[in-house]
Amino acid sequence: METHRIRAVINGREITSEPGVTILQAARANSIRIPSLCDHPALPPSGACRVCLVEVEKNPKLLPACTTPLTDGMVVDAFSPKALAARKAVVEMILIRHPLDCFSCESNGRCELQDLAYELGIEESPFRDDGDVCTEHELDDTNPFFIRDMNKCILCGRCVRACDHQSGYHAIDFQFRGIKTMINPPVGSKLEESDCVFCGQCVQMCPVGALTEKKAVGQGRAWQTKTVRTTCPYCGVGCQLDLHVNGDRIARVTGTEDGMPNLGRLCVKGRFGYDFIYSDERLTKPLIRVRKGEKKSPDDEFREASWDEALDLVSSRLNEVMQKHGPDAVGGVSCARSLNEDSYSMQKLFRMVFQNHNVDHCARV
Amino acid sequence: MTNTIGEFAKAKLLFCIGTNMTEAHPVAATYLKNGVRNGTKLIVVDPRRQELADYADIFAQLRIGSDIAFLNGIMHVLIKENLYDKKFVEEKCENFEEFAEKIEEYPPSRASEISGVPESTIVEIARMLGTVKPAMVIYTLGITEHVSGKRNVMTLANLQMLLGNMGVEGGGVNPMRGQNNVQGACDMGALPNMFCGYQKVDSPEISKKFADFWGVDSLPGQPGLKIAEMINGLPTGRLKAFWIFGENLVATEPDPRHVSHCLNSAEFLVVQDIFRNETTPFADVILPSAAWSEDDGTFTNTERRVSRVRKIKEAPGEARPNWWIFKQVAKRFGHEWPSNSGRELWDNEISVLCPAFAGVKFFRLDNIGGIQWPCPNEEHPGTPILHKDGKFSRGKGLFQAIDWVPSSEQPDGEYPLVLSSGRRLVHYHSRTQTGRAKGLNERMPEEFADISVQDAERLGISHGEVIRVKSRRGEVRIKANVSKRIAPGMVWMSFHFWETNANHLLSGDLKHFDPDTMTPSFKACAVRIEKIA
Ligand code: SF4
Ligand code: SF4
Ligand code: SF4
Ligand code: FES
Q: Are residues A331 and A274 in the same domain?
């Protein structure tokens, strides 16, 4: 069925779009930028922050791009003097209560509020009086995965929608009223005792420094890290991860927003389970058993060996066994956690070199 | 999976059986929840009232190991009430008559008696399946880790053929593969009867193709041994030398004492891993491997999607990539292997040898992200849905007449409860990785045995109390988690922690394994629980 396409102009560019989308969605689909804050492409729109106000011809009032449907013939300007002035005022209002300790903030360099203030040329809020800065809330670092600094929260609600829509829980919501408003699990309970499964989706979606990963602290600024896309090492869903890497350290992990199948979503293991690779307990040298007696015993020790020695031993012993008992006396199991290329190589070794098909992998899938 | 995870969010009906998705495949479960919110109907079948049940339109708490009887009962109603897809059955399938005769023996009354699911629920489920089309069947190890694992899977295939739910979006038979690359390990031919790309070792043409490509005179035509046969072949001398790559067999196979005994009988044992674990003490040689993020290559997810895994650092010390280790051993047997990286292995060997992966190349993965096989050429976008338009790989879909048989170890007077086991959210298997990730271990520092409120009351056990769980193999002491989600007569445990590992209780005896797949009965074992104090 041919659907009627909508024609419109956004920031001076003519576009066409399928019906039923918002101005912001149409702009994004056409790579046209409209500043926004509470909106995120992966989340349902909420219209909470008013940063996305745009001027639309024939409309006396500015309209929020993230919740206003695009209609035929609309002429939209996100950077008209009126829209700019409104946006500036909106951000200045947010900055009345927001602490300006960007220096020590984990989100410095990837904070969407900081970027907006910079773009709009705001140094500090002209509306701010002494004592306005939010110090209401105690820092919450009781859970093992992330820190919640509600003083920095701008109440955009992205975390609430992330929890609901992307994680399928409802562990947190707006609590209390007026200047006491904050994001919390149900009144009186701590996150650890709520439905929260610590997937950290709320952290990934938070545009400011209100929610930050514990293990990322001090691991490097946004501009010091490079992003490497990879695949999660845990379950068969195969989520795509962006590793934020500083030198050879993973500073933090986020879900790849356009990666299939997870579209930015992760669970607790994929997001927080990466640091086993840095463990001091890693095996770092080939080890050869030193028998105390004739037979193997639990008291035997292992001594370090060179690769040449270890590989020579493996090859000669396997060869011996095969000479004595035939090729079928050797078998192996491959690893369902490691790379395709590793499993391929192992079965090649058994089939081609050892001349048997005794190769399998863990049945416990 | 014949279909994709993303379809969970827009399917008409999801039929989830034996899958604890919110813990074992958490991100997949988020799509399921999106679907339910958008009006997708959900049927959940599980011996535990696990989280998915909270979202279900119909929940059936069946007895462990009764799956075939239960499913046959549903199909009985579908046939009797003419709710099946006659056109699909006639045009796309064969052997319907024999199958229907077998189904005749499973009226809902009998299915109910065996499964413990009320007759009315069985009828209700059948009617929903018969009227809301299509439905995706989704399952995990709750289906396969039984003596009847393979027959359970075939029964689900019967159901989807009967409903005509194959080869369509929002349909299909969808096993959620457990480990990140268990799909890939199968794809790569870490199987005793298949080369990589599911090419049979006993086919002379295929065998010749591989022999020619690898530059050897010939390859053996007999399939090899399965993992359980290898382990059990050690004490009998059938196998003398054993190479364990990356599997902590002592902790993850049933009955660690038995596995230890087997490994101890090996004349020569190689263990290749990234950490010492419960299995390394039995090794003659331990080879240190590069871990995830220390080498370039690919994983294949449960949707057959091949995705890149990238290197960000060198392996510590002298640890080396796994493929490098195999290559060095081949060299000592006089074979120079050409490939020197994951990219070369995939692009120049794997994708050349396997028609299903022919169009998957590293440059494409780097440009467009993952690709779902089959992907026959470099212009092909990949295949999200298998058997499109009812075309099965063998031509027509084959109905199988399948009987229910009880689990191999039935509860009795001495061991009156049934233990089932699996994974929990924050940990993975024997915790060699999650136990070393900050936060995860703090979140769940110890294991529990989940028991029902009724059994707890009967034995005077309170929540959090340390109890004894005992089987014919052994016993563990473990804290009780008294839970409303557990049916009376059942115990549920994970295998994440060594001391409280459920595997201590399971049997390594092959009579408790699926005779076809040699998969152990991780989900069914008779136990008794005792109060200690
Ligand atoms: S961690 Fe996940 S479950 Fe917990 S509040 Fe954040 S989004 Fe919700
Ligand atoms: S915690 Fe972050 S995401 Fe949540 S409302 Fe506050 S600023 Fe927005
Ligand atoms: S992030 Fe979680 S759901 Fe995704 S692949 Fe990793 S373990 Fe599985
Ligand atoms: S982005 Fe539109 S109101 Fe916040």
A: no
Subunit contact B247:A281, Cβ cutoff 8 A:
no
**CATH code for the domain of B263:** 3.40.50.740
Contact B143, B153 (CB under 8 A): yes
Whether residue A265 lies inside any domain: the answer is yes
The tokens for B403 are: 């009987």
Closest CA to B488 of B61, B169, B132: B61
Cα separation, A318 vs A328, in Å, equals 11
- Tokens representing B499 are 């001391």
Neighbours of B87 (CB within 10 A): 10
pLDDT greater than 90 at residue B495 = no
Query: What whole-number distance in Å separates Cα of residue B165 and Cα of residue A246?
Result: 48
**A126 ligand 3 Cβ < 6 A:** no
> Last residue of some domain: B151, B176, B201?
B176
Instruction: Find all residues with CB under 8 Å of A217, minimum gap 6, and list them.
Output: A106, A147
Structure tokens belonging to residue B323: 């493929």
Instruction: Check pLDDT > 70 for residue B394.
Output: no
Q: Which atom of ligand 3 is nearest to the CA of B27?
A: 3
Give the C-alpha separation, A105 to A155, whole Å: 18
Place of tokens 């009354």: B109
CATH label of the domain that carries residue B21: 3.40.228.10
CA distance B300 to A337: 10
**pLDDT confidence of residue B406:** 83
Handedness of CA B523, B528, B531, B532 (dihedral sign): negative
Contact B238, B213 (CB under 8 A): no
Q: Contact A328/A358 with Cβ under 8 angstroms? A: yes
Contact criterion met (CB below 8 Å) for A221 and A108: yes
Largest CA distance in chain B: 69
Domain span at residue A353?
326-365
Domain that holds residue B445: 417-531
Residues of chain B neighbouring A266 (CB-CB closer than 8 A): 27
Ligand at shortest distance from the CA of A40 = 4
- How many degrees, rounded to 5, is the angle at CA A185 between CA A179 and CA A190? 110
Alpha-carbon distance values, B280 to A275, A288, B260, B269 (Å): 22, 11, 11, 9
Q: B509 vs chain A: nearest CA distance in angstroms?
A: 15
Tell me which of A228, A252, A282 is where a domain ends: A282
Asked if the Cβ–Cβ distance from B330 to A353 is below 8 Å, we say yes
**Reported ipTM:** 0.92
The verdict on a CB contact (< 8 Å) between A198 and B426 is yes
Ligand 1: residues with CB < 6 A are: A 162-163, 167, 169, 171-172, 196-202
Of the candidates B341, B298, B354, B21, which has an alpha carbon nearest to the alpha carbon of residue B184? B298
In a domain, A176, yes or no: no
B492: three-class secondary structure by DSSP:
strand
Burial pattern B206-234, b for ≥16 Cβ within 10 A else e, equals: bbeebeeebeeeebbeebbbbbbbbbbbb
Residue A314 CB contacts under 8 Å (≥ 6 apart), including other chains: B270, B285, B287, B329
List pLDDT tens digits, range B215-263.
Answer: 999 999 999 999 989 999 999 999 999 999 998 888 888 888 889 999 9
Greatest distance between any 2 Cα atoms in chain A: 94
Q: Same domain, yes or no, for B209 and B240?
A: yes
What are the residues facing A183 on neighbouring strands? A174
- List, chain by chain if needed, residues with CB within 6 Å of any ligand 4 atom: A 36-39, 47-52, 64, 66
* pLDDT for B533: 74
B134 upstream amide cis, omega within 30 of 0? yes
Instruction: Determine the length of chain B.
Output: 533
Same domain, B189 and B150: no
Residue B430 lies in a domain: yes
Is residue B407 one of the residues assigned to a domain?
A: no
CB A53 within 8 A of CB A82: no
Of B524 and B117, more confident? B117
Read off the pLDDT of residues B183-211 as tens digits, 9 standing for 90 and up: 888 999 999 999 999 999 999 999 999 99
